[in-house]
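Lab notebook, bench 4. We co-purified these components, and the gel suggests they stay together. Before we commit to crystallization screens, I want a quick structural picture of the whole thing.
Request: model the full complex, all chains together.
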Amino acid sequence: MRIGELAARGGTTARAVRYYESLGLLPGRRSGNGYRTYDEDDLRLLRQIRTLQDFGFGLEETRPFVECLRAGHPEGDSCPASLAVYRRKLGELDALIGELTAVRAQVADQLARAERARDELAAEAGVPGGPEPECELGGRAT
Amino acid sequence: MRIGELAARGGTTARAVRYYESLGLLPGRRSGNGYRTYDEDDLRLLRQIRTLQDFGFGLEETRPFVECLRAGHPEGDSCPASLAVYRRKLGELDALIGELTAVRAQVADQLARAERARDELAAEAGVPGGPEPECELGGRAT
DNA sequence: CGTTGCCTTGACGCCGACGTCAAGGCATAC
DNA sequence: GTATGCCTTGACGTCGGCGTCAAGGCAACG
Ligand SMILES: [Zn+2]
Ligand SMILES: [Zn+2]
Ligand SMILES: [Zn+2]
Ligand SMILES: [Zn+2]
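Here is the predicted assembly.
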């Protein structure tokens, strides 16, 4: 199989495959005419990389999985090094989700506060001598 | 106040301040000697930018808030445009948190499955004729 | 024979938010 | 005077994961 077919079957592009090879994640065997040539094992490697990429793993983080497969082990995550990456990633995900959740709450608070302020201004505007309308409609620039 | 003091009081660097100015987020007033000069209002602008940055907003997303403040409105989020950014961001955060949570679950599944497979191999290894040890300890490369 | 299609290497572009020199000007302190 | 420290513009570097030409080779089809 040549690079185009490998890429298509792996759900990516030839350019990406060459890039993975440049990182040493995929082999660079050549056939007589100089074309890269791949077998089903290589497709497994590529699919392992893609799966992890879809999980948000960086390419370097896929290396233990790839090396595990290349060592002939049954799965890319048969090795302790791969399990360690899983665990580290779980920690990172939890931390990130926690941060994002906290930020979400803060942004929701800000929105609520700003809407409340806006409504109060609108209520005052209902009475004579109330404040001017909102932004874009004019303001007292400094 | 000159750029160094502004940056320090705003919790950032002079380089960042110049960058914000290049985007039109901060003014570029100069004093006689060519130095940039700032007042307390500018510090409010900078702090508004930093706060939103800490929330993960892109600099372009801070523009409505900054323009609102520069228009003399009481808060950066007094304008509908700012509120719209808040709401859009809430949606993005919810989407992102959802994706990350789903990924977290998948990674946890993978980890559990891999650990189970490892333990099964270890159990079989306890009996004679069991499989070889894990990765890095040897494998039948292809 | 030419045309098409896939392949090759090399190299620069992109995104965002700056960091990091380089080379020089201004102002205060000693 | 000069040493120090902050300021100026300009320009290139960073990180990741490729995209996108450019210029040319190999193979099959008609
Ligand atoms: Zn093979
Ligand atoms: Zn292994
Ligand atoms: Zn002002
Ligand atoms: Zn406003």
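The pocket of zinc ion (ligand 1) is lined by residues A 39, 41; B 142 (CB under 6 Å). Worth comparing against the SEC data before the next meeting. DSSP finds five helices and no strands in chain A.
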